[in-house]
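Please, why this fold?
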Amino acid sequence: MENAIAELTPVEVDTNHLPSLEDLMREFNDIESENSIHITNNEDFDAMLEEFATNDVQTSNSQNDEYTSNGQTENRITDELYIRGNAHFSALEAELQKVEAALLIAEGENGALQSLVQRKQTDFDNYRRRIEREHGEHYVHAVTTLVKELLPVIDNFGRALDASELTTPTPENDFGQFLDGIRIINQQLIRVLGKVGVTPIDVVGETFNPQLHEAVALEENSTFPPNTITEELLRGYMLGNRLIRPALVKVSS
């Protein structure tokens, strides 16, 4: 250590560059003034902190009031929406009831219309059947009237043919060709009547039926059983199932 101290070399100090006493005093005053400014600034900062705290409290109170006001407003809006919703729902329910009532009325009217249509259809069917029945009756009446007018002519043709069979042709009275012509005409008349539904009633050998036959005589006949037609005196005719003229017959007793 002593050797190290002995080895230290003296330092030369430049006295020309050392600060003077005035410079030191001025620097000290500047430092003191700066500290005073900081102190003043610190007081201002404290005042600012106090003011900020006051404002913060006021802001907090204002926000609380605002929250309270907002809550009341929200509650009022909610209540109003609820009231409006109920009113709208009530209106919809009333409209639904009206629609249901209108639907019931429409269903009733539809049922009435269906009943009316069914009645009209029934009336039309009855009218159609009545017209068809009347038309058929008119047709039968017209044909019956015509046939009744023709039957005497046919009867006379038949009588003429029956009488011709009893006559023996001779060179003086040879009218065989004439009789053949009469037979052809008679057959044509029978065919024409058959086309319109008129048919002769077969009676010989049949049991007497008062609805179809008219008995003009009773005779004892061993060939036929009792109440049996033995001879046809006048031919009867039917138009379909309708009797035009009953047959005149003899019946066995």
